[in-house]
Amino acid sequence: MSKGLAESRTELAMSELVAEPRPKPAVPMKPLGIGSNLLGYIGIDTIIEQMRKKTMKTGFDFNIMVVGQSGLGKSTLINTLFKSQVSRKSASWNREEKIPKTVEIKAIGHVIEEGGVKMKLTVIDTPGFGDQINNENCWEPIEKYINEQYEKFLKEEVNIARKKRIPDTRVHCCLYFISPTGHSLRPLDLEFMKHLSKVVNIVPIIAKADTMTLEEKMEFKQRVRKELEVNGIEFYPQKEFDEDLEDKTENDKIRQESMPFAVVGSDKEYQVNGKRVLGRKTPWGIIEVENLTHCEFALLRDFVIRTHLQDLKEVTHNIHYETYRARRLNDNGGLPPGEGVLPPAPASPRPATE
Ligand SMILES: Nc1nc2c(ncn2[C@@H]2O[C@H](COP(=O)(O)OP(=O)(O)OP(=O)(O)O)[C@@H](O)[C@H]2O)c(=O)[nH]1
Ligand SMILES: [Mg+2]
Questions:
Q1: pTM for this entry
Q2: What is the position in ligand 1's atom list of the atom closest to the CA of 265?
Q3: Span 24-47, average pLDDT
Q4: Where is this region: Disordered (predicted)?
Q5: Domain 58-89+99-264+294-330 fold
Q6: CA pair distance 232, 213, nearest whole angstrom
Q7: Ligand 1, residues at Cβ distance < 6 Å
């Protein structure tokens, strides 16, 4: 079912927009004045092609983080993502040994190229949290990491000699792993999401979904949605950022039906009907992670990469980073600390330009 990344939303939208290729003018057209031929072709629609070419040249960054209690399969899901259709074509990823317990925040990067477009996918793995006797404020190291990336970006942005293209290490999406208890969210889950949903796009997911029956899964999903609503926790895609009715209709469906995606992870491959698939072998058969009748991993991957990637990046930049930037600049007289404060502008009049 999976097709290339090149057929992402952007490209589909482009093919719709440029349904009928128009001839390009041989010489740039003069601006239209009053009385000029209003029916003449200007070439505004070529902007899409120009943007496409630029993106092909520069590529883009996408950074995704996994967070949750220890042992819920975060590191495994990262491997699943890298080994799945996302990067199978370019995979040089051959880690067969057992995944150890994660002890520090670690970013793993991978360049994926499809249809001439390069994506630098970075997955940030975090150690399980909530294992301590006192779990108060245990989300702090994660919030600190997220803010550090905003700070790095801000420092680059306010530099006088700033880079043409600022490397983007900001976390665009945070997958929050919920334990498949079938009961309710733990206070820790609620606390984490309450705090972090203000600084990053959180996508809640139910981990190890193979441990639940179909009915249990449906009920649990409903209960989690309800609890998030009752506690006023906004996850991605946030209602307030829907841009139009089309967005709202599409996102309402995701918010009310798909979330939280119930996923299964595995980095082991098995032979099923003559095809090699990623799966988990059990006495009852093989659970295929990319088979939609088995779990929602493929839905999650498509949501994050094929339909909402650009939006995740935009919300990160326009909302979360902007909030951080405004707060930071406000606190420090217009510049981040350590950079000094600009002296007042000279009172002398500007030199004449003409
Ligand atoms: N049943 C089931 N087991 C899984 C799944 N994903 C991972 N596991 C198993 O769960 C165990 C822990 O997986 P990890 O990926 O190391 O978990 P983690 O969340 O990274 O743990 P920490 O690094 O301690 O935070 C391993 O034995 C995995 O094989 C899943 O979807 N279903
Ligand atoms: Mg781990």
A1: 0.80
A2: 31
A3: 62
A4: 329-354
A5: Rossmann fold (3.40.50)
A6: 28
A7: 70-76, 99, 101-102, 127-128, 208, 210-211, 264-265, 280
